[in-house]
Design a protein that fits this description.
Length: 135
């Protein structure tokens, strides 16, 4: 994954499987929950196609869900915020995600400063998850 505006991309020395497990642990340690997971790797393998590991992990919690819903029903389409684990050609894995403040930015005009504050809190939580999972 290449760096992009509004994203964090963390290269690790971990394997794909280890990084996925460490993301799950870091999510729980930050009082968040894994609420969705998806990836084409296993299904492709079942079809006889070998692709690098690729997993999207949706993370949120009910406290933030209620806060966001109170501010903007439309903004909830963005929840859960996704973490993206990708396997690199050298056997290591990377963790990428859009900053929650970037994800929720289109709804600020409607929802106001309270959504900005919630997104900034989520930015800190997601940075903490990424740091813990990548070490």
């Amino acid at each position: 994954m290449a760096p992009r505006d509004g994203w964090s991309v963390v290269q690790t020395q971990k394997t794909y499987a280890d990084l996925i497990e460490d993301v799950r642990v870091a999510v729980r340690a930050n009082s968040m929950a894994v609420v969705t997971q998806a990836g084409p790797t296993g299904a492709a393998r079942n079809r006889g196609i070998d692709i690098p590991g690729n997993r999207v992990i949706g993370v949120f919690n009910n406290i933030f869900a209620v806060r966001v819903l109170e501010l903007s029903t439309a903004a909830m389409i963005e929840a859960p915020i996704r973490l993206y684990v990708t396997e690199n050609s050298d056997g290591t894995a990377s963790l990428s995600y859009k900053h929650p403040s970037t994800v929720f930015a289109p709804y600020v005009a409607e929802a106001g400063a309270d959504l900005v504050r919630a997104a900034e809190e989520l930015d800190v939580i997601f940075a903490s998850i990424a740091l813990a999972a990548s070490q």
